[in-house]
Design brief:
The chain is an all-alpha fold and 419 residues long. It has 18 helices and no strands. The longest helix has 32 residues. It is globular, with a radius of gyration of 21 Å.
Length: 419
């Protein structure tokens, strides 16, 4: 199973790009917890901390596709590095002003979120030019999904470690400085400097003029809602079943399930069009959310949380392939950034929805929210199946050689004409 991943990591530039992207994304992965810890240390309320974290999240959701479009137009180094510097400076300003100058704090946090560089979409745009075979690109997408789970698990530990060693302010500064170094490592690499998007048709909608991409984003809005709601329902469950330690184990199990599922998925070459495969994966993902409503004891609940995560990374990896196939020519970074934005917005909506549901119906009903959201994602994919498959097979909006320079076997993956 590991052979395919090892082969990719041995490819020139691959390890550097993957590691640099993960390190560069640490500020984004840890922003919410770092902001909350800092505000509480400065004497602010949880309401203020939550509001500032929400401002960061909204600004980040707005900035990702906008910066992704700029990357497609002007290349990676000219956009990614200035954005990383501005984001880091915004968070540094917030660290030194704190809640005492509230208006400035909101502006600084908004700037940090808005200018977060679209490293995630940028890496996926680079994989085809770095790797030699289409199947390697697909495996790299799976590895990318796995690495995300690692980052979102390790990132909060790094923040709390910095807090224990130094202070909450130092955690903000250190994590964002490291993030800038990660972005720098990516943009000075040869693949990043050499990468250029294919010529694109001028259109104000950009990547969003692809109907197939819109269908995919609609589904992943609900998948994001499922994940966001699990975090709230998990807190409610832990409050009555062992406290923070149980919550930590549940979230770790969710990530472990995704790691295992992604590793198994990426180790195999799959036949057939990815659009149909995604429908199956999302349906299985939705089914695995429902056992959480049983709310058994802590050990069994942790096992159910691991089961709930198994099909997440495979669904993400498959979605990356579909984005590649459906992104209009010259919009691949923007298209991947829209997926990030949609997922983030969905998670925020899920968090907001689960709170009142838990207060109204209890923990079990709280865990019904991810089940319903997963089912809604599955319905969206079924309802738009014709749009997804037809667009992917016809190549009307599929990526060109920019997305697969080696002649993909799947129809539409390397369509040469412009959207």
């Amino acid at each position: 199973m590991a052979a395919g991943y090892v082969e990719i990591l041995r490819t020139r530039h691959a390890t550097r790009l993957l590691a640099g992207t993960l390190v560069g994304r640490l500020p984004n992965a840890t922003a919410a917890i770092a902001i909350v810890l800092f505000i509480r240390a400065e004497g602010g309320t949880y309401s203020l901390a939550g509001a500032l974290a929400a401002v960061y999240g909204v600004a980040n959701a707005i900035g990702q596709p906008l910066l992704g479009r700029l990357v497609d137009l002007h290349g990676q180094p000219r956009v990614q590095l200035p954005a990383a510097l501005l984001s880091g400076l915004g968070m540094a300003l917030f660290a030194f002003t704190g809640p005492d100058q509230l208006a400035l704090a909101y502006v600084a946090v908004a700037a940090a979120g808005l200018f977060t560089p679209p490293l995630e979409g940028g890496l996926r745009a680079l994989w085809p030019s770095v790797l030699g075979k289409e199947e390697q690109v697909h495996t790299a997408y799976a590895m990318d999904a796995i690495a995300q789970e690692v980052m979102f698990t390790v990132g909060p530990l790094l923040v709390t470690g910095c807090v224990a060693l130094w202070s909450e302010r130092a955690a903000l500064l250190v994590v964002n400085a490291v993030g800038v170094l990660g972005a720098l490592s990516v943009v000075v690499s040869r693949p990043s400097r050499a990468w250029r998007s294919e010529p694109r048709e001028a259109h104000w909608l950009g990547a969003l003029r692809s109907r197939g991409l819109l269908a995919l984003l609609g589904a992943f809005l609900f998948i994001g809602m499922a994940l966001g709601s699990i975090t709230v329902a998990g807190v409610s469950y832990a409050d009555g079943n062992g406290g923070d330690a149980v919550y930590g184990w549940m979230m770790a199990a969710l990530g472990l399930g995704a790691l295992v599922g992604g590793a198994v998925y990426g180790a195999r070459q799959w036949s057939g069009v990815p659009e149909k495969r995604l429908s199956v994966l999302v349906a299985l993902l939705a089914v695995c959310y429902w056992p959480l409503t049983l709310t058994p004891g802590a050990v069994a609940m942790t096992a159910l949380a691991a089961l709930a995560g198994v099909f997440l990374a495979p669904a993400l990896a498959c979605a990356f392939i579909i984005v590649d196939r459906h992104a209009p020519r010259g919009t691949v970074t923007e298209a991947f950034s829209w997926l990030v934005t949609t997922f983030t917005v969905g998670a925020s909506l899920g968090t907001a929805a689960a709170g009142p549901v838990v207060e109204w119906g209890g923990t079990a009903w709280g865990f019904a929210v991810p089940g319903l959201a997963g089912a809604a994602a599955s319905v969206v994919l079924l309802a738009t199946a014709r749009v997804l498959v037809v667009a992917g097979e016809s190549g009307v909006v599929a990526g060109s050689s920019e997305n697969d320079r080696n002649g993909a076997a799947e129809p539409g993956f390397s369509a040469p004409h412009q959207a």
